[in-house]
## 1
Amino acid sequence: MLKQQAHQAKAQLQLFTALDDSLAGAAPDSRGAHEASLSKTTRPYRLWLCIRFPELSLEALGSSRDYPAAVLSEQSGTTAVLSCNAKAARLGVSPGMTLNTALALSPTLDIRQRRQSAERDLLQARANWALAYTPVVSIEFSGAVLLEVGGSLRLFGGLSHLRRRLREDLQACGHRVIIASAPVAKAALWLTRAGKETDCSSENELPGLLADLPLGCLDWPVAVQRQLLQMGIRTLGGCVRLPRDGFARRAGPGYLRELDQGFGRSPDLLPYYQPHEDFHEALEIMPESLVAEEIAGVLHELCSRLSVFLRQRQANVQKLHVQMEHCGRDSTPLEVVLREPCSSANYFLELLHLQLDQQILPAPVIGLSLHAAVMPATTSKAGALLAGTKVNGHDASSVTANRLVERLRARLGAQQVHGLSLVAEHRPERAWSVTEPAGPGYGQPLPGQMVSRVRPLWLFTSPRRLETLHGKPVYRGALAFISDAERIESGWWDGNDIRRDYYSVTGNGGNRLWIYRDCRDLCWYLHGLFG
Amino acid sequence: MSREYRLRKLLKSPHIWRPGDFSVAGRNHVPTGFTKLDRQLGGGWPVGVLTEILTDQPGIGELRLLLPALLHLNGNDMSQANSACVSGLRGKALDIKAPDIQSNGRPDRLAWIAPPYIPYVPALMQHGLDISRILVAHSARQVDTLWAMEQALRSSVCMAVLGWLTDVDDQSLRRLQLAAESATCWAVIFRPARFSGSASPAPLRICIKAGDKPQSGDLDLEILRNRYGPIGSLTLQC
């Protein structure tokens, strides 16, 4: 012990003197000793935890433990039981049995077809959940999730504490798990496959632990396993004791490499799990429902999951897309587009509620799915201390103005709420256009010189044809002309050219109208009202 | 106690309102731009309560009546509005000064809820309004219009909310009145004149008819109910 400490201290002293010399411009051959001492003292400590889900196929289909259930799969043309839960096993059902045998043993057996996509989704969801404990997660698609917890042990209070916590969380979700740990990922995986929940803390103990594991935990093809069995090898220890070149020739070099990786002799590179960029989750509504409260309840659950997702990634969302699925029909969409990114689940829920209230559902809803494109947050939104200061380049009031527009759009429809803008056009009906209600940065200076004639404050969407009496236009009585003609002739370039003479007139009731005479068909039309 | 003393004490009671007593302390007003109307309304359009304007024909001049006040809220000089109205009719070229806009966290939007026709942008700009502050919301149903008005009033981003309604019951108008009070926003609703007889909680109700000389922009206002001054009719030129 003391010798080890002395050795470490000497290595550190060598390190410091080497650094000192290099700073002072010492000779290059001292650098060799410096690098050697670095490699021994600064290798990172890695501990891989493997969580295996032995009943993954059942759990992915959402079956409960209250009644016997089994999952079927197609294997070489015959349908056989892939796995079954504890109740079914007690009645005698076991993997590999045919369907008829299983039904004979347990008449009330709940049979399900295997869905590999559901299993993959479940593994990815668990990998996402595991990211809360460590950033290095890898999925083993045969039914396990690997976590590298060397850096997380201190935060979570030690390995046993962490294991207990993981087990409790997963059992609360309804999973049966086998957890083992080892310095090498493959070794931990093999341990869980053999059903042993051991903790191996250093690489020196690995060969001892792995030697007794059966060949089945390697998951090699049946032919290779049969060949090794015929040679009299039943455990991993037996494989390792064989001469290397002979083993490589008989079984294959790939299997030899796998053994080396598992025993820590060669590096094992695992693909790390990258979480999805976007949020996509779906929930089923059991039983199908037309009641708004139940649908709203599921929406609430989805929105809270979204806000947890956003908080973990410190991100915002600007667009939400909800699909309400019906049986045998196209799904009904609900869409929320925000004017600026936001991460508050309550606000999303409010806008979705407003849209849901306006929606007439054609059929009962069997499931809801929420998809959101996630954007990283630029800066956190801090409130303004003084009323006049700008926050992130926006005013505090423009934030609430955006909220008002979003709320109005959620209930009335996105096209029904808009701002106005001027278009440089002579044709009166095109001299304006619908635009986005102004966000921050509005208030551009107005054009100085406008149209010379006064324009009516109200314009009709389409001009109304007027009756004529003795050649003069009438609208609820005689019309008295106030102004002389204003000729507007324009628009030959896009095919909608007009040639009109506009007049301001007074009607019978005393209101002022803006009418025109079309020079082509010589008819009078009412186009607007003054005031 | 003498009879005069008892009488004075009785008259001081808050349960009695005297027609000549128009000091409503702490009430904001937006100057209307017409001195006669200002005097009758006790300073201008009341902010924080519902103003109801009834017209028998749309487009008779109700918007022109409100324009000077809207420009005042915009921050423009009110005389510019009046001169724009009159000189524009005679066909002169108009030179509009750009209003100085600095939103300081105060409400500054103008919301138009369910306007009957298109608010024509060149005309609004001729009169000097800032287009970028306008928010237009169309709605098919009366209940949506009421909801949108309430949202706009409660959001405290609007300095004025104009809504067009037809047959509304008393309860909904009371809700709007409460919403306007909560935000101290200038709220105006326009209704057809056939509802002038129906009950309404709005403290200010004005019916507009065209005057004798509509060419010069005469308007006949009949104030049906006024909390801030005498009721009666007056003629304005705008």
## 2
Amino acid sequence: MAKAVRLWEGKIVRTALVDSLGKFDPRLQAHNPVMFVVEVTAAAVSLILLRDFLSGRGSQVLFELQIAVWLWFTVGFANFAEAMAEGRGKAQAENLRKTRTETPATLLRDGQEVRVPAPSLRRGDVVLVRAGEIIPGDGEVIEGVASVNEAAITGESAPVIRESGGDRSAVTGGTIVISDWIKIRITANPGETFLDRMIALVEGAQRQKTPNEIALSILLAGLTIIFLLVCVSLYPLALYGGSALSLPVLVALLVCLIPTTIGGLLSAIGIAGMDRLVQHNVLAMSGRAVEAAGDIDTLLLDKTGTITLGDRLATEFIPMHGTTAEELADAAQLASLADETPEGRSIVVLAKNQFNLRGRELAHSEAHFVPFTAQTRMSGIDINNRRIRKGAYDQIMNFVRENGGTVPSELGPIVERIARSGGTPLVVADRGRVLGVIHLKDVIKAGIRERFARLRAMGMRTVMITGDNPLTAAAIAAESGVDDFRAEATPETKLQLIREEQAQGKLVAMIGDGTNDAPALAQADVGIAMNAGTQAAREAGNMVDLDSNPTKIIEVVEIGKQLLITRGALTTFSIANDVAKYFAILPAMFVLSYPQLQELNVMHLATPQSAILSAVIFNALIIIALIPLALRGVQYRPLGAAAILRRNLLVYGLGGVIIPFIGIKAIDLVVAALHLA
Amino acid sequence: MVINAVIQVTIFSMLVTVISVPLGRYMARVFGRERTWLDPALVPLETIIYRICGVHAGLEQDWIEYSISMLVFSAVGMVLLYGIERLQYYLPLNPQHFGAIAPDLAFNTAASFTTNTNWQAYSGESTMSYFTQMAGLAFHNFVSAATGIAVAIAVIRGFVRRGGQTLGNFWVDLTRATLWVLLPLSILLSLVLIWQGVPQNFSRYVHARTLEGPEQVIAQGPVASQESIKELGTNGGGFFNANSAHPYENPTPLTNLLELIAIFAIGAGLTHTFGHMAGDRRQGWALFAAMGVLFLMGTSWAIWAEQRGNPQFAAMGIDQRATVMQAGGNMEGKEVRNGIVGSALWAVVTTDTSCGAVNAMHDSFTPLGGLVPLLNMQIGEIIFGGVGSGLYGMLVMAVLTVFIAGLMVGRTPEYLGKKIEGREMKLAMLFVLIFPAVILLPVGAAVATKAGLAGISNPGPHGLSQILYAFTSAAANNGSAFAGLNADTPFYNVLLAFVMLFGRFLMKVPVLALAGSLVAKKAVPPSAGTFPTGGATFVVLLVGVIIIVAALTFFPADALGPIVEELVMHAGKLY
């Protein structure tokens, strides 16, 4: 189970401090143009410092030394942010990796059992796993049924059934077989399993820039070039006015202006996004998929298991005239005592709850159960000369007429009303007498309506897919609050629907578990496979939910959006900071040639050198101060787009203008008090 | 005085708004090749032009073909203009027998008129023959404006079309912009100007004796026809050196108002053309509103700064108040008949757009007043802007805005349903980057060299303002000047010519490439999670992004020019 890692976990911080030193390597920095510029200029200032120190131009050395140190710190803090994000990812990965212990496996080769170490297994190998053994790798059950404890991955201790064929055939390495045995065909080579891929992603090793990250990097690089132009051209302009600007001062201005805050935190934000996903027990195959999740326009959901609990349950007894509800309940319970289907059991339970009718001992020989068959399409019990049957309207009608009874006129409308409401009417009769109707209902999962409302607020349209007839589908759609539905759907319907939506330019997400979901999962822009699903489904999707919880999509979308919002917010903040930095640095630069510019020194900073130094220190420290925000992400609320924008503009835009005025002034007070400049 | 300013600005703004809507709809029809009421007269002419030039009107071009056509057309036009200038002595319609124009000035002027800049390092009445003015300069006044409109239309198509590769046909757009938009409007305006007293003749200059005795030479010429396209095409190159301060170019209050409206008309109309072509008129209104807000901000600031006058004069007891008898404020370099409001309003309008026609001397504005025209150009002349160039410049800023906004609402940024991704950002940033590069680097070179410093007429920060203004004006294709700078030297002629060419064509190509990249994209239908670009929030954000980008880029340079000049002035020193 991937549990949340504390933000400033001591071990991670220590490792990150060490790792950030290695990141000073210019070959690594070159991937990030903004920080690369800082590193290059820091090196240049250091050389100037060395020259001045050796030539004994003492007056400037202390100031230049501090500028140089803080420039190196700026790079170091950005490195640290990235190392922190990677460290937290590694800690997550470590949790995941624990599930992948070195287990011996029983390989079946030519019918012979061979003991081999798990890492030597290859795709296509068949292994036998018995009760008490750990499953050695990802695979598909090809023979047998077993209960498996997947707590190692999902944190859920209740065992699940895994069996060959059907939609519950996939098993994950590291989980434990509790009872029985299964034969598994291994589906992944070592290092290519789900866990391996995810570990690589959260550790940042295989991290590639996502499309949006690339676009943002271009914006940041462009801004950096513009400010480079500004600073380069400022030298002759200042010279014209009579000030010869020194390189350290120009560099200080440059580094303060270029978007170092977002530039330094950009990769940390991306890694932290993947990390948050793992905390929600979702494995993503790429950062691109996470980003796409934030853009989803349409979400396809299976009715069964996602919107409804999956089984129809009895909710009401409706007696005919001349029959009491209790009489009907009693007969229905008798007829269902031997019925082990969820429907049958729910009838027994409902009768117990409503009329306190206990299940009774039916050991005596007169009781004869009539099981459901495809021919009769009804079930029931023969007991004490009673012949009780329950079943669909048409079948029971025939049964009643055969037994010389008549159909009450009130029955038809009741049956129709139940069908129209999306339920299933189950008619109960005793020989020729119709007792009444049981209302079987698809029960909507608790809280699903609120979840759909939340998705709608995020701007997503939900479409329910069901094999039910349109009438039933419409009723369930209305009750659950889903935006649209597609009834009488076949497996191909999903694929077709996804293509239709995509042709309109929409991004589609879909959740699936079965093998027949695989093409649709592959076609969808975001395909989330349930971990309990088939191997085919897991291969086809680009995310796997370890908890097999279909409503997890909401968290996935929120994480995707959060990722973009955090980037946008910090970019805005970074650029807005420049205003205050101009007011700090420009008057200080021209104190000799144009003392009148001191009117722009609105912060009343102590000395020109202190002003420049304070701006540089603020610029470096703000990176550290924003690491928690970068790692946790800006909070996302499902409001309308314009409302979110206004809020974030106020906080990060206006805040970005105001905060540095306060911060720089505070640092200046400290710098002046310590006589640093 | 405040009332005077409010009345003038309000009447002007209302008229521009009212005219821009039908004009925008009309242009959408013209470039959509739908029926217009001018078709019976113009379609036959159009057909003949296509037949002579071998244009296949039905054949559309992708962004590369469109760019090449545009560049080839402009290059040929520039070479022809250079030839005319050099050979004008041998050409007809030269009653004053003006000689050939020096190579560097001819090159500068050719670049200037080809790029819709109309920077004039000469005075027209003592340099250019009537033939050069009409066949050379006025021709470019039409086609450089039409080129701008054509590119804007192509860029709009990139944003609004769903799929495909093509952006339209440059030759068709160019022809239709000229025949359907510029020609009829300028004929109409010329007639009104002639009625108001603007000359339209080929006469020799008139010699007259003034009341005081000395002889005066009064220049003549086909002024009205030049004047109307000068404003409509946001060209700005005056027939006379004094430009629209000259009574022959701008004789009456009515001509002053009409010329101001003409400067804004097409640029404002194109926002609605965009809205029509996008099928969502609010999109057009949003751009119009952003431009309007920026215009009103600049106007209020400029009028305030000029009306405030010079604090040093106030200290000397000079009455600078506005009364019934005097305009008050800083009247240096202003026409008495235009006054403070008329001059400040014109200065803002002419620099919001790439017009550059003037009715007062910007060089003589107060430092803060002069900062407004400078800032308007540094923003990139997207406040209604140069015909065409204003709109596509604004669209690039809109792309940047939705990128930031899109991130902050948690969706891959999109504009009109088209996703803004790496390639679009690259091209938009290239567009944004080139502009400060072609201003700041040459300014740095000019103040660091003897040849550059030689042109300055005032020392200190004002001298820097003059150089900064010149290169900003050239890069933005404005053409107005802080006229104190002596720019007719080989150094400035050549450097400014290149800046004008870069500022025009190095920016047109990326924006066409951006359109080419967008046109092929599928459009995503909007949802509740999409940031709406037709509303007030977008307008505010767009204005904010524009100001921040320009301010951050040019603040240091401006601080050393106009801002320090203002502060030094308060300390008692004038330049």
